[in-house]
Write a structure and sequence with these properties.
The protein has 656 residues and is mainly alpha-helical. The chain folds into four domains: 177 residues, Growth Hormone, Chain: A, CATH 1.20.1250; 183 residues, Growth Hormone, Chain: A (Up-down Bundle); 48 residues, no CATH class; 150 residues, no CATH class. Helix content is 59%, strand content 7%. The strands form five sheets. Strands 2-1-3 form a three-stranded antiparallel sheet, with no helix packed on it. The longest helix is centred in the middle third of the chain and has 30 residues.
């Protein structure tokens, strides 16, 4: 008997998933890096990073759920992706926080409902819903391709080209959505409410309520928490090639996504969900330990964490929800897991980092105290004084308690310079960073170093407006707010001012002095490693080696660190660690004092996950869903088996 499923449906749905996550992966990860490049504040960067969660929270209430009642899902996909594409392209042309925030928020509001709608289209037409993970795996591949293209060919997060990539991908996806099989609305036939909140009535079913409540609570310590803390942990612990290591998440996800139907068939969906929950709890236990091999295990577990828990939850909802409410139910789950849960997890991650801070997060503060129009209470001080000093304690209380006068105190703090492992460049882990690997294949290190120096030479040439071979403070002040573009790479005004000040500091100049082109290029061409101080290359840096440095300023991480400050901080780290004798530090000791206390940061969510896992395993009792027999398609489907009484309960694998 001829099948009624559309032709090539698995291939067509796989392309849908590829494009869906290609668009999402084009902006979700990159937007915060772009915001940092634009010199936005930490709070502003945090808000931009939450637009996806805000979109998932708000949009289903008035957009996603309407698809069930009024419109075909594929047409809603087309309209939403066109609107999202317009917003994300417009975002590429603005440079202020408010404008970028508004446009990215609109992008999140119009894009996030499409995730649930794409799932709904896939589940409605796929011949075997248990095969959905093998279709969803193309989404993971699309994400990897999007990040790779943006980072290798479009300038990464330093330029807005990734936003244009997302916009073009959105337009392509919108047009492609019109070629998908018709997925008509069914909510109106069932008398759904006008506002599209009809999926909420499913919560009256105790089984549905327990399931949704559990997966929602579990989502709080899951992705939002993990993604916010993953990079800081890998970097602070000094693991090799931290950005490259994050690729293990996606590679593992491909493996487990593809093999998930086998696990569902052998174990049953409930046991697969339990495995996904257990994986989150175990991975956080791994991260609580500083051992590198345990961190690798925790990263690899991401495949099971995401596929078995998140995709498993979508599969259960598709099985459990009535046909006329599947889109609404998927939107409800996306609202809870990708919206409220993700947002709460990200905010919880920030709280935990502040709750368990590093022992020594900053270099000694440079304190500037300025007293204007001081009166008698200034005890004979001049009307205007400026005292600059490097110290850990607060400025002299005499200066801060003037009864008559204006007192201003400003402090500038630099993070401790990173101590990069010189062997990292030789580590095989770096090849996991696909973008860097491709760049290495396309361009040698010598060519990249030459390109950097040529860019800097072109930059100072543009800054030297009068052509006198010297960059003056006035010429730096004349740089426009849009910065300076050199071969497509944009240097912001703040970046240029920071480099100018670093050169002045490096040569002991006053604020009003200019720097020559050769001085500028001399500073930026210095080795960018703290390990340069390790003269005997024994893996340790002594106080004597710091003092023996040729320059009074050490160039690390694009900043100049005064030798005096390094002497102070080396002594403090030595004391903080309880060491005795001569001041000698190795890389592990240096990293230990500037890292958050990661053990409780990961242990508390692990305990929470284990508790929820136990409650779900003991208290969740599912039952088979009995529906009307599906139209005869020539295949014996799961719904038909359930209707005939032959399907096993969803928490019981076939054969049990």
């Amino acid at each position: 008997m001829e099948s009624t499923h559309p032709p090539l449906i698995r291939t067509r749905l796989s392309v849908l998933m590829f494009l869906q996550f290609f668009v999402w992966g084009s902006w979700l990860v990159e937007i915060t890096g772009y915001a940092e490049h634009l010199e936005f504040s930490g709070s502003q960067i945090g808000w931009l990073g939450s637009v996806a969660a805000v979109g998932a929270i708000i949009s289903p209430l008035f957009v996603g759920l309407i698809a069930d009642r009024f419109f075909s899902a594929q047409r809603v996909l087309c309209v939403l992706h066109l609107l999202s594409a317009a917003c994300v392209i417009a975002a590429g042309f603005v440079g202020t926080f408010m404008a970028l925030m508004i446009l990215m928020l609109l992008t999140g509001l119009t894009f996030m409902p499409t995730i649930a709608l794409a799932n709904s289209v896939a589940f409605r037409h796929i011949p075997d819903p248990d095969r959905f993970p093998r279709i969803a795996v193309l989404g993971t591949i699309g994400w990897i391709v999007a990040v790779l293209v943006a980072s290798v060919f479009l300038g990464g997060t330093k330029e807005p080209n990734f936003l244009f990539q997302a916009g073009v991908g959105g337009v392509v996806l919108a047009l492609y959505a019109l070629t998908l099989p018709d997925t008509p609305p069914k909510g109106a036939e069932a008398g759904g409410d006008v506002f599209g909140l009809s999926a909420l009535k499913l919560l009256k079913d105790p089984v549905f309520l327990v399931f949704v409540s559990t997966v929602f609570l579990f989502s709080i310590p899951a992705c939002g928490y993990f993604f916010a803390l993953m990079m800081p942990m890998l970097q602070q612990r000094g693991y090799p090639a931290p950005l490259a290591l994050t690729s293990l998440n996606q590679f593992a996800e491909i493996v487990f996504m593809f093999s998930m139907p086998w696990f569902v068939a052998k174990l049953g969906l409930k046991r697969v969900l339990l495995l996904g929950m257990a994986s989150w709890a175990v991975r956080y236990l791994c991260f609580a330990s500083p051992e590198f091999w345990l961190a690798l295990l925790g990263l690899v577990l991401h495949g099971m964490c995401y596929s078995f828990f998140y995709v498993g939850a979508y599969m259960w909802i598709d099985r459990r929800a009535p046909a006329e409410l599947k889109s609404s139910a998927q939107s409800l789950v996306a609202f809870l897991l990708l919206g409220v849960g993700y947002f709460a997890g990200a905010k919880g991650a920030g709280f935990m980092m502040e709750r368990y801070p590093a022992e020594i997060p900053h270099m000694p503060a440079h304190t500037v105290v300025e007293v204007a129009e001081a009166g008698e209470a200034a005890e004979g001080l001049p009307h205007r004084i400026r005292i600059e000093r490097t110290r850990e304690e607060a400025p002299d209380e005499t200066l801060l308690s003037l009864d008559n006068g204006s007192v201003e105190v400003t402090e500038t703090k630099k993070r401790l310079p990173s101590w990069e492992d010189p062997q990292t460049e030789k580590s095989a882990w770096r090849y996991l960073d696909l973008s860097s690997t491709v760049k290495e294949l396309l361009k040698s290190e010598e060519e990249k170093a030459k390109e950097k120096k040529e860019n800097q030479a072109a930059l100072v040439e543009q800054l030297d407006a009068d052509g006198d071979e010297t960059i003056s403070p006035a010429e730096v002040d004349d740089v426009g707010e849009s910065g300076v573009s050199v071969d497509g790479l944009v240097y912001t005004k703040k970046e240029i001012a920071g480099q100018f000040e670093s050169v002045q500091e490096g040569f002991g100049m006053d604020e009003d002095e200019g720097v020559t082109r050769s001085q500028w290029l001399d500073v930026v061409s210095k080795p960018d490693l703290l390990a340069q101080l390790d003269a005997d290359e024994d893996g340790n840096i002594t106080l004597e080696e710091v003092e023996a440095a040729e320059s009074d300023e050490i160039y690390v991480d694009g900043k100049l660190y005064p030798k005096d400050d390094l002497r102070v901080i080396f002594r403090r780290v030595h004391k903080e660690l309880g060491l005795e004798g001569n001041v000698v530090l190795n890389r592990e000791q240096w990293l230990a004092v500037q890292a958050n206390n990661w053990q409780p940061i990961w242990l508390w969510p692990s305990v929470f996950c284990f508790v929820l896992l136990g409650l779900f395993a003991l208290g969740f009792r599912d039952k088979p869903v009995v529906e009307e027999p599906a139209p005869d398609t020539g295949e014996v489907g799961e719904d038909h088996a359930a209707a005939s009484g032959t399907a096993p309960p969803e928490d019981q694998p076939p054969g049990e």
